[in-house]
Amino acid sequence: MRKITLIWIGLLALQFTLTACGDALPTPTVTPAPQPTFTITLPQPTPAATATSTTQAGATPMASVATVESVEAHAQAANPNLIDVVISGYLPNPCTAIAQVDQERNGNTFTITLATTQKPGACVQVISPFEQTVTIDATGLAPGTYSVDVQNMSATFELK
Question: From the centroid of its chain, how far is CA 97?
Fold first, then answer.
């Protein structure tokens, strides 16, 4: 009988030991995976200083018009009375296109506006570069320096 009691005491001791050590094991913790973040940095516009250079860089986004990054003006080699204005920039997506080019003259300043349209429906939002050449007819204009303004960007040309 003494042997059975010792076995029972031994089993109870073993049970208490296992129960006491059961909580000592570390509980695994699940750390949530970090969520990805995306940052897109676009070129910041530079204010137009003076309209004395032939090219200015920097972009000012405008609603319903193309974003212009540079403007260059130079006379055509074959006909110096025709001034080619090369306009570079980007459109907000490949579904947007230049729909209309408006040209006005006020004194020695030509203003060009590139109006855009976008096809209806879904479109991937990836900027789409463009280059547009607009010809100004300078026939009959007095010699001097002229300015071309295209959506907050400027260039100059000189007639002799």
Answer: 17
